[in-house]
């Protein structure tokens, strides 16, 4: 079973359109599909802007993991196979099989560990592909997927130039090299070599979030390090911010030359700040002689772009649908990144499938 | 079970709005929990950092929603998840426009929207199901007439009314009409249980048809409906059943009143389509209406006899048929008072019988108004009105005595004299009448200038005058504020609210309110406009509470004048050859004042 996640950078960036296209092509190729989502998505009306949104059309045999309350509002007839006992704001998450085709409202688990549990539960039904639909800009639980599709577009940033710059930063973060560390469990720590011996200090907390956190880590490292330069490595906590890393580098950067710094994965890096700030921080690290790695690899497969954006009209106090010129975003972003960039509505489901499932 | 003290981090993400969280904080601390209220507007990573240090059981975020806010909230949840704090801590979001679906979408474990009580949040924190204060929220039907003895407080007027009533009943002896015959036939031979089972008695149909005009005759003999109407289709009925099933499954009623004793609030329905009526009723029940009033079309009042069938038509007023009334009844919440008007036409007595058999709580009867401003012959409506009152006694239906002839131009004291005569008649026959003075900008005050300064004094004078005459319930209408409303929905809601607040301050028992687009809709009114005025009335009740409105000295002077004038009118009526002659003579409203004795049913009253 391959697990593909569809994450959006903002509301209305085309997550559901991308998911629907992937589904269509999977059905055409007669693949067995499982679907879940991070939290709630696929509702008929956007909860915030009040503009209409599509729900997912599913065919017979599809396996879904969704909240119990969503079964009643789905037009597809779904037979419940099991209750995962994972609770959500919309009732417990159940696994069901589509008996009669129709539209389905998916509201899956919203925590990383729960997505992992649902993924394992769905694997027992032997689907070829598990699709995890993102909700809003929720991305943390995407650590559980094998590959990611990023949906972005004018609803995130209307200026194509700025959007291209941001998307490039995201793509670069996903290109960070992978290396398996050896010293610590998940919370991380600091290790350095004195002769043939490695000294290691594990972190107590799981965060490196504030400027003070960064300064305090720098102080601890400097206090323990011998005066001469040594080889070392820092396995960072699961969640860090650029702010904290910068203060660490400012206070201790010169002592950490040639050190390896391990981030948990590209997802946690994306959460550390705005993508451009994070990318800039990584470049700064490299220029200071540090070597950033990720401990878990997660490939970014495709970027899908949506020219649509809702424009607020203060007069009527409503949002109106607006679109950037066709092809503009594909061109601008495509020139900046190495992975495929496509407008699914223009290029179609087959193209999306080829570029996504080729791994 | 051992008490488990919880630690709750309260996070106002709004720059300023943290009052809700402060209230929740107080509730949680009173329940013995530990709280930590953060300063407003912290960035998400700082909140997560504090979570990492404080290890709370729950984090409650307060934020008003807007475009872009969802992303901030989603990012906060992501940070908590990535920091490994998501498993140990429950995340809750609350604020304007927050619903459970949105909370789920943003990745929170729960969402609390506007109207959430502190108790509900405490129950959530303690992991127990929330038991709303049922005693407070539960609505029960109230008998508006309870506690009134119907004693005359004004001796002279009481004596006059007693004499007039005696004269009316003497005059009525031995008189009969087709309306009375139909009401007795409906009373004795129409079995409501058989009707509900779909059984049609040919015997009843034929006997009934003989007492009807051609249109009802065609229905009862050949099944033809009124040419202006059509039957609801099977598809429409299926949709209605579906709508009712779904709506009732999630239905809850609310209260408009803020303090005990504020008036019960009635809305009026009569879109012509029973399905739309039902939808309006459900909206109004949900937004706090205590009662609903059935409006029938004017042609129904001018036709001898009722037709049947589940009928709709594109005119004001919903046709009275057993089927239409049964569907409306089936749609009502148990707490809703239901009034079916019988007051003005050729089917007055039979309407009371139908209403009684089909489970109505109230009806409406006024001989003077029906004769002078609604087109029915005074003699006919007098005999039918007496029969209707007797049927109201039999079916235990209190009735209001409306005074809409004021809207035609009849001065209040004359309209009130007519209302008091019918009330005294009801009192004599053992009924429970309710006085219904208008709270309106009537032609009388437009000309007389009593409302140049304010809308308070003259309305207060009316209540004061009536209270000084008889100990009877009061239900201003209909609707309150009539002719003060404009096409502006805000203005219309505001004036309704202020009139409701005045009614509450005057301690009346009930009011009827309009929708905010009712007077100027030029067609069907919309459900949202119902909510406008119900909300506005609730706010009016909330604002004034037990507070009072002080009329100027004009009010008492006008009340005294009104009582004197009522007495003078009643003296003239008592001296007239009969009550019917008094109606013809204009004693209770003359042609110059806009009152015209009706002609409907003229010549149909016969001696037994």
UniProtKB/TrEMBL annotation, chain A:
It comes from the Bacteria. InterPro entries: P-loop_NTPase (IPR027417). This is Uncharacterized protein. It comes from Heliobacterium chlorum. The lineage of its organism: Bacteria, Bacillati, Bacillota, Clostridia, Eubacteriales.
Automatic annotation (TrEMBL), chain B:
InterPro entries: Cobalamin-bd, Cobalamin-bd_sf. Residues 4-132 form the B12-binding domain. This is Cobalamin B12-binding domain-containing protein. It comes from Heliobacterium chlorum.
